[in-house]
Each structure stands twice: as C-alpha cells, then as structure tokens.
Design goal:
This protein has four helices and no strands. It is mainly α and 179 residues long. Helix 1 runs antiparallel to helix 2 and helix 3 packs antiparallel against helix 4.
Amino acid sequence: MDAGLAAVLGALAGSIATISAAIAANRSQRETARFAARAEHQRQRREPRHGVYKEFIAHASQLREQLDIFANFDLYPNSVTDETVKRYNDTAKVLQGKWVEVGLVGPGDVSASSKVIEQLGRKSALQVNRLQWFIDQGSEQRKIEEQTAIAGSSVQLTELLDKFIDTAQAALDDDGSLR
C-alpha cells in the first residue's frame, strides 16, 4: 500500500470516528435535556398540587373534627346549635369548592378519592341538619338514630381522609420515570 492511500484511509477513519463521537454526544445531550425538561415539568405540576391537596386535607380534617362533636353531642350538651350547624354546613360547602380544585389538578385517582370525601361531606351535612331538627322536635329515637349515623360517617370520613392522603402522597412522589 502506498503512503498516499494510507493517508487517505487514515483521514477517513479519523473523520468517521469524529462524526460518530459527535453523534453520540448529540444524543447524550438531547437525552439529558429531555430528562431535565421532564423533571422541571414534574416540579411545576407538583407544587400547585401540593398546595391544593394541603388545603383539601385541612378542610376535610376540620369537617371531621366538627362532625365528631355532633357524633358525641351527648358529651357536649350545647353543641347542636344554629351556629354550630351553620358552621358545619359552611365547612362542607368550602370542602366542595376544594374538591373542584383537586379535580382540576388531578390526577384521576386523587380526584376520585377527593370526590368520595366531598360526597360524604354533603351527606353528613344533611345528617347534622336532621339531628338538629330531631332535637328541636323532641324525637328521642330519631335523634339517637341520626347520632349513630353521624358517628358512622365520622369513622368513614377518617378512613377516606387517610386513603386520600396516601393517594395524594403517591401522586406527589410520582416523578414520571415509570411511564
């Protein structure tokens, strides 16, 4: 082989190696940029979700605390008043608004979990209103039945809230890497 052919083949091999290295570096940079963009996107989605979930949990917890008082109103003789019933209904109404916010920020499993809590909030608001009405009417048997129903709703709300918290934590921890 003469020196000219060797030089051309050497230059060609060097060019191919340089081009291959450039292609590999380009692919690596694209993957790194895509990963960074995905991480930033996840962070931007997580931050508003965290705030919305936190507010929903706070209002659901407040509803649960108020419901516990109605469930145990015999321990708190003056707990069923127009003011406490109105406060409960107002809290249930605020929770309904927070449920809509959770539904908007998603994901679906968190939205579904919050919807069940919101529905129980509306159901328990009716129970609280009926309890007050039965107390005002002096209907002892119906009052006891409604108090029992409220106690059941209180337990159910606690369980549903715990489930929501677990579901929300999983949604916030999801980094999208398993997709």
